[in-house]
Amino acid sequence: MSSxxxxxxxxxxxxxxxxxxxxxxxxxxxxxxxCERLPDNLxxxxxFLHIVNRTYESxxxxxxxxxxxxxxxxxxMNEVHENLRRESEQRIEALHQTEQKTRFMTNMSHELRTxxxxxxxxxxxxxxxxxxxxxxxxxxxxxSSCEAMLDLVKNILDFTRIRSGSLVLENSEFSPREMLENxxxxxxxxxxxxxxxxxxxxxxxxxxxxxxxPARIRQILLNLCSNAVQFTQKGEVFxxxxxxDIIDHQVTLRFEVRDSGCGIPVQQHDKIFEFFMxxxxxxxRKNGGAGLGLAIAKELTEMMxxxxxxxxxxxxxxxxxxxxxxNTIEHYTEPNEDLQAIKGRYILVVDDNKTHQFILRNYxxxxxxxxxxxxxxxxxxxxxxxxxxxNEPFYAILLDWxxxxxxxxxxxxxxxxxHHYDHMPIILMAPPTYQHSDSTGVQATISKPVRTSxxxxxxxxxxxxxxxxxxxxxxxxxxxxxxxxxxxxAEDNPVNALIxxxxxxxxxxxxxxxxxxxxxxxxxxxxxxxxxxxxINMPEMNGYMATEAIREWEKGNGLSQVPILAxxxxxxxxxxxxxxxxGMNDYLPKPVKKxxxxxxxxxxxxxxxYNRAVNPAPSQAPTxxxxxxxxxxxx
Length: 635
Hints:
By secondary structure, the chain is of the alpha/beta class. The protein folds into 4 domains: about 1-90; about 170-330, Histidine kinase-like ATPase, C-terminal domain (Heat Shock Protein 90, 2-Layer Sandwich); about 340-475, Response regulator (Rossmann fold), CATH 3.40.50; about 485-630, 3-Layer(aba) Sandwich (Rossmann fold). The chain contains 16 helices and 17 strands. It has helices at about 1-30, 40-125, 135-165, 175-190, 215-230, 280-285, 295-305, 355-365, 375-390, 410-415, 450-460, 495-505, 515-525, 545-555, 575-580, 595-605, and strands spanning about 170-175, 195-200, 210, 235-245, 250-260, 310-315, 315-330, 345-350, 370-375, 395-400, 425-430, 445, 485-490, 510-515, 530-535, 565-570, 585-590. The strands form 3 sheets. Strands 1, 2, 3, 4, 5, 6 and 7 form a 7-stranded mixed sheet that branches. It has a 5-stranded parallel sheet with strand order 9-8-10-11-12, with helices on both faces. A hairpin with a 3-residue loop joins β6 (about 310-315) and β7. It is elongated and about 150 Å long. The N and C termini lie far apart (about 145 Å).
């Protein structure tokens, strides 16, 4: 037994030692300890075990740090994942809301455009009926107002479509000449109460028909023109067209809009095409607008592979233009009319506006006439005398209605006093609201901005060539006598003013129109008006301030109070009481109905202290000195 036990022990001992030795060597390598052999005494064993323990503790700390790092990283990854999930959901929701907004705006556009188109269609039918010039002006104004409303709806819808990327251009044929002339006519209506002229020039060789997206091009031009009119207080707004290049069936046209307005500060040049951007908040509030026009115009021109460019100088004006390549459908052709009545004839143009001189000179030259330009009435009279001396008479005169030294009507009466000019055709170029009278010595009147076809027909007719002339080119309604008793209308909105004056035109009163409270006060202190219709929200001096000023003036001069009626869009509680408290006699909220307006006006006319002047007896003396003052036009 003892021998077997010893053998067993002798067999196990070498294996155990080898394993132990390997393990120790592994620990040594992990501990970065060089150990060729096992410690041979107690002290060395202690040192070796200390190194092993320290290495183990370091590894344990490293492992714990790694575990904590992994835990933190895992938590951060979970947070990132959750954030990405929420952001994706928000983006999906935002996209869904955008689609809903687009559908909503599309539906709203349809709902709004349906009644607007109904009105436009009715007005189109009405245009084809027999109308007087005054009725036609009112119908055209209503039509233009509906078109402006339709354009605003389109702007809002297009903003939504552009943002969503769903706007698509169309392609159809249209007349660029007709488009620009119609836009210019609309701008003239909007600028009626401003001291500015709207001028339009389209060269004769412009193609008759081109293809493109007429609705979008018109929208761009309307936005540019509307801005020009809004930000111009005096001077002119010019709308022009020019051929840059024409190759086979493709023409490059430059559309431009130039004004003499307030201009754009240099520091705002890089911002004016941003959505909802006004160059100046105060100016933006004064002139209106949603800040969408230029931004949408820029987006639309870029969709047509073009760019809007501009130059602008503060207090001088702005010039915007863009070039479009369009396919030509119908090229320019020589006119079919027999122009012999015009060809070679000397035609005198009397106009102080340099731009309009340029326009008329180009039109007349294209018809082979010989235009002679006079920049004033006095200069024109001298040219008339010279023509007699040289035996080279003028065959017709294009006469501007408004000139600084001598207005057109005064000039025409002066010319008619000389028998040499008894039969010379004088064509007066006047605003659409001008009412022609045979007593002025003027054969015909043409509205500004001048349409080329209308001017050509008018010249042919007056130079001996028979031609059918549209009724609206000749205005035959006599001027209303200025000695009639009058009502003063203070209203800054031209459309509202036209509506009010038309509603009141059946009364035996002249309607004088002013556009702000200051003009209303000045007019009232110079003429005995029987009644004042006062808008509340007007520039320079509002209706409240004007009423207070008038009442103080009447009190200081010992005069009876003239009835003042408030016409205002303010219909909140307390507005009526405020009007009465400040000295007004009555109140009528907008929109005004004709029956209500006439009832209120007739009621207060009966109470007016000057009502006896409607048909005064010869023995009646004037009330105060101002009753004897002659009429002064303030509009």
